[in-house]
Amino acid sequence: MPSTLIHPPAQRAGPAKDLADVLPSTLQTPSGLALIELQGKILVDDADGLDEDLQSALTVGRLIFPAANDITDSHSLAEWDGRRVFLFVGKHQRLAGEVKKLAKPIAVMRRRGSIVTGPTSNDHEMGGTAQNPTSSQDLEIVEIITQKILFANRPEPIGVEQEQDETVPASA
Question: Where is this region: Disordered (predicted)?
């Protein structure tokens, strides 16, 4: 029966300084990962003419954590109410979401890619030596996620701010 080793997460001092400025403390993780659940499909205007490689690197939108007494766009994390989140997609859509605690925590894992070049214990037991390097398939726990950002409602249309050049009336 095949098996693999699972390693605990590497010790980290805490969230990176730049991540501490972006995510509220309830969502901060040492690696900066966050789980976002979307109900539906995001359509981005800029993605129409791009190939698949460029589409995967496309920016989806901006996450905003509004203040408790402010419904509009706010960048103050000190007053964040702890649950409401907005995702602005492009220039025309806003998704309203909230932070939810997961019923069961989720472990995010990655393959630990180490290459074994010398003889292994299995080679000695079998009486041989390792001629070709083999890749180890050990797994490492990157993060344990306990909360998610859930966007369960349809996007709200928003207007685009016009540039000042277009709104200045012509003088007579």
Answer: 115-134
pLDDT for the residue 147: 87
User: What is the Cα–Cα distance from 81 to 100, expressed in whole angstroms?
Assistant: 13
Q: Give the span between the Cα atoms of 117 and 100, in whole angstroms.
A: 46
For 63-96, how does the pLDDT look when each residue is reduced to its tens digit (9 = 90+)? Answer: 888 876 655 544 544 577 778 889 888 788 899 9
Residue 136 tokens, joined: 């180890």
Q: Which helix (H) or strand (E) holds 63?
A: strand 61-64
The amino acid at 170: A
Q: How far is Cα 49 from Cα 164, in angstroms, rounded to an integer?
A: 29
Neighbours of 134 (CB within 10 A): 13
User: Can you spell out the DSSP letters for 83-99?
Assistant: SEEEEEETTTEEEEEEE
Helices (H) and strands (E) in the chain, counts: 4, 9
* Cα→Cα distances 24→16, 64, 74, 79, Å: 13, 10, 13, 10
Query: Whole-structure pTM over 0.85, yes or no?
Result: no
Residue range 4-19, pLDDT digits in tens: 888 887 765 555 555 4
Distance CA 80, CA 73 (A): 12
